Structure formats: structure tokens, C-alpha cells
Amino acid sequence: MPGFLNRLAAPIVFLALVLIATITMVRDRGDAGAENRRDLPWWRGALLEIAIPIQRTAAAPFDALGDTWNRYVDLVGIQEENQELRTRIILLEDENLQFREALVASDHLERIAAMRDDFETPMLPAEVVGLDVSPWFRSVLVDRGNQHGVRAGHPVVTEQGVVGLITRTSPGAAKIMLVLDRQSTIDAVVQRSRARGLLRGLGAGELEFEFVVRESDVVVGDLIMTSGLGGLYPKGLRLGRIVALEEPGGSLVQIARVRPMVDFGRLEQVFVMLRRGPTLDLLYGPNAPEPPAKPELLPAPASPVDSPGPPEPPPPPGPIETARVDRP
Amino acid sequence: MKKWGLSLGAGLLALVIQGALATLVVPPWCPDLGLLVVLCLGLRWRGLAAGLVLAGLLGFSADLLSGSLVGQHALLRVLVFAGAFIAGRQLNLKGGMPLVAFVFAATLAYGIGAALISQFFLEMGWPPASVWAEGILHAVINGLCAPWVAAWVQLLGVWAGDEDGATRALPIESSRRPI
User: pLDDT of chain A along its 328 residues, tens only?
Assistant: First the structure.
């Protein structure tokens, strides 16, 4: 009898594990409802809390190696880039000055200052501590969680553009689904012509912009930005640049290949926008920005907003650096 | 039990290292060390039931750090472990090239499994060619790294006092009674 049971042990364990894994996946799939279920269960949260410092420690030598490479070895074209950036700063400063003058002249500044609260979104800096290695999933792990005010559905950006969306949180960590992930779809707009479309992640390094051919003016090199209409991301955040257009043939929709603005290979620090879009509010509840428990004075991205909007007065000294975004 | 504990520790360490390594080596150039450890353990493991539990635990840990559905890596790693366990007994994978080829095929099968599960549970379409190209490249990288991870796992076996760590006695069964 024991020999018979021993022979059955492996198949029973195998079936039990397959069943447990399948049930877990079904439960995870159905978790889109309540917010408290988007926060990881205590035991998984605790495991993640343990993993984060270990992962950060493990990453330290790799980071040091990467820093050494970037600062001392990989300097090809850095001089030209510096020159180009300096020129661009001068041009932007000049443009900014002109906008300010125009607005002061039209007496809009006071009204914009009054609307400041509506437009501002607090930004929380977070450090990337881990990445998915397989091409089948595109997510990263950051060292800020719900004790810092981070919630599922908060958009994540860098100074370059949109990174993704928070999907899971524990007290001290959060998972971000990157815009590259195949589950990611964003309502986007071409900055130049305002042609609208959907920007989809492909799971690889590029994105796919799908738009209606008729009356759409889209060319290679166009900048793609969030439209704010999808309800997940605020309006005016940079997403990517069109690198190729596919022939529409007889179809009404055309596909364009988009290179993301963010260099996901060098993702180190990101900024969590501590406010959710209205669509996620419908799912999760009221849209109350939760201030972090430990306010920090860390730099916010230079300008996640790309559209030339009206200027604003310098922000008052606060616990968190902020950046203006148009509320969807 | 000692080997089981050590293997669990090694698998978790591999997950942490690969997550950190990926911040330096851009995916898909970064090897999936967690998967490699499960595969190499499967090829050398004795006692399928305990090994499956180990693979399941390592899979759930991978789910914790990854953007997958919770249970997706666990299911796939249990299947991969079982496959490696059987392959380790049916095929001669002791040489470098056979091991590289086996790990390459197993990684590709893992990717197909991941895509199928995503399609079933998340109603996502079949991945485009660019993802498959990255998947194949990732499988090649995994295959090339496999001999090193296998050597490390073998060393772990020696450390845990598991046989001689290098070879496993083949179970030769006979219906004849000993004379």
C-alpha cells in the first residue's frame, strides 16, 4: 500500500499544483474590481518587502558597473549632444519668455494661478529596483508603495515621457505595467495634426499607433502624446515618435510604428503621478490624491508636458515637487 | 531536505540577481536565471513530488516580481520542471551542446505557454513577430548560459551531499528475481 501511495504522490502533487496555479490565475484575472484587492495580500506584500532591499543590494554592483560605463566609456557623441541641448535650451527660454509676455498682456496669469490646484499633480520619485527579463511580460518594480501614497492606476512618467501605469502595490513597493506591455492601450494624439488614434504595446521595443486613415495627417517623425480621453493618463504627456508608416491598403485604419520617448533600457528613476484618471476612479472610488507618509524633496522631471501650454508662476516650496498636467 | 532548502534559496537568489541584472543588461539579452535554475534542477532531481513543490514555489516567487498573472509562472515552471525531469531520464543531456539545445527548446516552449495563457485569460492576441524574434533571441541567450547554471546547480548538489553531485545512478528495473 505505501508503495502504491508513493507512486501516486507525484501525479497528485502535479495535479494539485496545476489546480492551485489555475485558480490563482482566475482569481487574479477577476481582481479588477475593488481597490483593496489591488493591494497585495499581506503575505505577498511581506515577501515583496523582503525582496526589495535584497534586490536593491544585488543591483548595486550592476548599477555601479553601468554608471562607470556610461560616465567614463560610452561618451561617443556626447559633445554634439551637449551643444544641441544648449542650443535647444536657449530657444526654449526665448519661447517661454514670449509666452509669458503674451499672457501677462492678456491678463490670464491671475486666472491660471487660481486654477493651479486643478492642474497640478503631485509627483513622487521612485527608484527602479527590478525588471522583467522575458519578452512575454513588460513590467518593472519600484521601491515606493501604498505607504507613500501610491495606488493602482497612478500613471508613471520620467522627464522623457510616459513609462506606464501602477498595477499592484504593497506597503513599500509597486509594480508598473510598461507602455510596451501587450496589455497597454492608450488613447493618443499626434501633436502636430491632432489626429487621434490608439497606441498599443507590442511586447517588444516599439509601439503601434492605429488611426483612421481618412483625413488623418500623420507623417514619420510626428510626436505622439496622450489625448487624455482614455481616462487613464492625463493629457499632453509624451509617448513616442513615429518611425515608420505601414501601407493601409484598402483598410480604413492605418498602423504606424512608434519608438517610445522613454529609454526603457536605462530606466533608473521614475515619477509616480499621485492622481488617477477618471476611468480608474469609476472602478476604484473617489479620486483623492493621497499625500505620501514621508514627504521628500526630490527633483521632479523637467517637463513631462510637451505641449506648449501657458506659463505659470514658480511653485511654492512644498513637500513634493510638482509638475503641471492638464487634468483629463 | 538540505538539498531542497538550498535549491529553494538558490532559485530565489537567481530571481533577485536576474531582476537586478536586467537593469544593466537590456532584456531580452538578460538570461532568465530563475527559469534556468528550475530547468537544471529538473534534469538532476530525485523525487519528483518534492521537486514539483519546489518548482511551484519558485514559480509563485517569480510571479511576485514579474508582471504576469499570479500563478502563470508557477504553472509554467511546474510543467517545465516535469518536462526536464522526464527529459533528464530519457535523453543524454550531459554534453554542452545537447543541454544548450534542450534549454533553447524549453525556453521557447515556455514562451509559447506564456502566450497561450495570456491569450486565454487576458484575451490578448497572438504576440507579433517582433516579440517572437525577441523570444528566440532570449532562448538562445538562455541556452548559452545553461552550462554555467548547470555547473552551479551541480556544485550545489555536491555541497548538499547529494550523491557525487555529478551523476545520478540510473534506476535499472528488472522483473527477474536476483539469483
Answer: 566 667 788 889 999 999 999 998 888 777 644 444 567 777 777 777 777 777 777 777 777 777 777 777 777 778 888 888 888 888 888 778 777 777 766 665 565 555 555 556 788 889 888 888 777 788 888 888 888 889 888 899 988 889 999 988 888 888 899 999 888 889 999 888 888 899 988 887 889 998 887 767 888 888 999 888 877 888 888 899 999 888 777 777 888 999 999 888 778 889 998 876 665 555 555 544 444 444 443 444 444 444 444 444 444 333 333 333 333 3
Task: List CB contacts (< 8 A) between A58 and chain B.
Answer: 16-17, 19-20
Instruction: Give the 3-state secondary structure of residue A303.
Output: coil
Domain that holds residue B9: 2-159
In a domain, B151, yes or no: yes
Residue B14: list chain A partners with CB under 8 A.
Answer: none
- Any alpha helices (H) in chain A, and if so which ranges? 2-29, 42-68, 78-105, 109-114, 116-119, 278-284
C-alpha cell of residue B163: 550523491
B11 touches chain A (CB under 8 A): no
pTM: 0.71
Would you call A233 helix, strand, or coil by DSSP? Answer: coil
Q: Give the one of B24, B74, B118 whose C-beta lies nearest to A62's C-beta.
A: B24
Q: How far is B23 from chain A (nearest CA, A)?
A: 6
Q: Contacts for B92-96 with beta carbons within 8 Å, 24 or more apart? A: B93/B43, B96/B147
Is residue A159 in a domain? yes
Q: Where does residue A83 rank: exposed (0-12), middle (13-18), buried (19+ CB within 10 A)?
A: exposed
Instruction: Domain of residue A251: give its range.
Output: 185-260
Instruction: Give me B59's grid cell.
Output: 514559480
Inter-chain touch B70–A17, beta carbons under 8 Å: no
Q: Could you give the number of structural domains in chain B?
A: 1
The CATH number of whichever domain residue A106 belongs to comes to: 2.40.10.340
Which of A133, A165, A167, A258 is the best mutation test for B, with the most CBs of B within 10 A?
A133
Interchain pair B74, A21: CB under 8 A: yes
| Residue B128 sits at the chain A interface (C-beta within 8 Å) | yes
Same domain, A139 and A109: yes
Tell if the CB–CB gap between A134 and B114 is shorter than 8 Å. Answer: yes
